[in-house]
Amino acid sequence: MISLEKKQQVLIAFHQEGKSQRSIAKEVGLSRNTVKRYIEEDLESRKKDIRNLPVTDNYIAPPSYKKRNGQKRALTNTVVKQIRKMLKENEHKRQNQMHKQQLKIVDIHEKLLDKGFNISYTTVRNFVNREEARKKEVFIRQKAIAGREIEFDCGEVKLCIDQSWRTLSMAVFTLPYSNWRFAYLYESETMVCVQDAHTKCIASLQFVPEVFTYDNMRTVVKNFIGTEREVTEGMKNVSLHYHFKIRLCQPRKGNEKGHVERSVEYIRRKAFAHQDSFLDLEAAQAYLTETVNKLNAHK
After folding, report:
1. For tag attachment on the chain, is the N or C end more exposed, with fewer CB atoms within 10 Å?
2. For residue 267, how many other CB atoms are within 10 A of its CB?
3. NCBIfam families under this entry (predicted)?
């Protein structure tokens, strides 16, 4: 939208300075069609003005724009609310391992048509894709609630056990609210070891957090189905047994699970940078437990 001042510059340059429309357009930074339109409007206004004044009322009239007679907008606020409601239901199903019962875009479009909305499949598809892309790109860590969420990860530790260097897996849990930590050493990162770590951690906590957060480790994610991920049967069984929800981080989005990743590095350094040789695995675990208890006590 141009200003009244620019419109007046156009008319003054044409009538009083005798400049061409081409030079006026270049001088004021407007298109030739815009300059031509305002000059023609003024000439028409002069024909109708019987007072024959040097400056017509058109000089002080703000620029006008023709109203477009386009089609009614299909993606209304009501439609947006309906689509977002269905996407939220899909999110709930993903969190409860009901991936195969989600609404696809074609299903969302059909439901909108059934409700009487006149909207094309392409419009629905483009909006859903924008919403999904926005959710993946933007992640805002909400303020942690006491006891609601716990994060899990595993990290490698190299220790000398009975005079032999071995690579062990260290399972680590962290409560984001209090930064309470739990760690346990295993021979490998198998499903049995991961399940055992959950059992030991919950026994130590003496309560079950509402949400357990994981990245895309092979013991948690069975496979990728397009942009969706299928949780392994072992982890489904653990979550059903203890009645907690599974939340998976987006691929390559480590900021969504930052507490536990820092805890893995922190515990590994605090414990095994000082001592890395033990008589047996039990001695190494006892030393790790003692270190973690001290860290928890010093928060």
Report:
1. N
2. 22
3. transpos_IS21
